[in-house]
Write a structure and sequence with these properties.
Helix 1 packs across helix 2 and helix 6 runs antiparallel to helix 7. With about 230 residues, this protein is α+β, with helices and mostly antiparallel strands. The N and C termini lie far apart (about 80 Å). The protein has two domains: about 90 residues, no CATH class; about 100 residues, 3-Layer(aba) Sandwich (Cytidine Deaminase, domain 2), CATH 3.40.140. About 45% of the residues lie in helices and about 15% in strands. The chain is elongated. The protein is built from nine helices and five strands, in the order H-H-H-H-H-H-H-E-E-H-E-H-E-E.
């Protein structure tokens, strides 16, 4: 009897998708290209279709996996083949990534897990198209007790009110603060306005016994620490 022939009606992408999963399980994310990881994400939104063309188009449009995941729904909708289901799949990955990074720093002494804190801030803010100002509140043991976005703004400015920062620290019983904001331009170099605002918050907080540990500026090209730069 002749051996069974492969089912010609089975789409090629079915086998391709299986091979991608096998490579992922065997070698982790490093075993796959950006668009291949995106293919697997999009599979949840289109289990019966070939997701490679859309994955490649998204990478081409936005520049990389992280940029696709962080892209706004409006920008994503401009790509042919993207609808609410696809956007839902992408945004689920974004939220999961931020939550996972956040869990590594919650209820931990922040100063002894500094890299984890930086990873979380980058996951939450590095690819945002608007400026955000985030406050990290610490207790006497420098354990993170609250993480709040105080303000969001435009592409290059988020209004910050030092009195509100210190008032919130007192409400939470915080002993120390870390300020974090992002530069959507990608360059994390502190501006003069950043420096002036940080000094104002430091002075206001010190009067009430609250320590300002650092101010971190997040950009796509890295980060800047006021303390490391000698600005605090």
């Amino acid at each position: 009897m002749a051996p069974d022939k492969p089912d010609d009606a089975t789409p090629d992408y079915i086998g391709h998708r299986k091979r991608l999963r096998q490579r992922l399980l065997a070698g982790g994310a490093k075993a796959l290209a950006d668009y291949e990881i995106l293919e697997l994400v999009l599979y949840g939104a289109n289990p019966r279709g070939d997701t490679k063309p859309l994955a490649k188009e998204l990478i081409k449009r936005f520049g990389g996996f992280a940029e696709v995941i962080k892209a706004s729904p409006d920008a994503l909708m401009e790509v042919d083949g993207v609808g609410e289901v696809v956007i839902g799949a992408l945004k689920t990955v974004e939220v999961a990534a931020v939550w996972l990074a956040r869990e590594t720093v919650l209820d931990q002494p922040v100063l002894s897990s500094w890299q984890a804190l930086l990873d979380y801030c980058r996951a939450a803010m590095a690819h945002s198209k608007i400026e955000q100002f985030r406050l990290l509140f610490l207790d006497r043991k420098n354990v993170l007790i609250a993480d709040e976005v105080q303000q969001t703004g435009t592409v290059d400015h988020a209004p910050v009110y030092p009195r509100e920062v210190v008032r919130r620290a007192l409400e939470l019983g915080a002993s120390a603060l870390i300020l974090v904001h992002n530069h959507p331009s990608g360059d994390p170099t502190p501006s003069k306005a950043d420096i002036d605002m940080t000094n104002e918050i430091k002075q206001s907080a010190a009067v009430l016994g609250v320590t300002l540990h650092d101010h971190i500026v997040i950009g796509r090209q890295g980060h800047a620490s006021f303390r490391s730069l000698g600005l605090l």
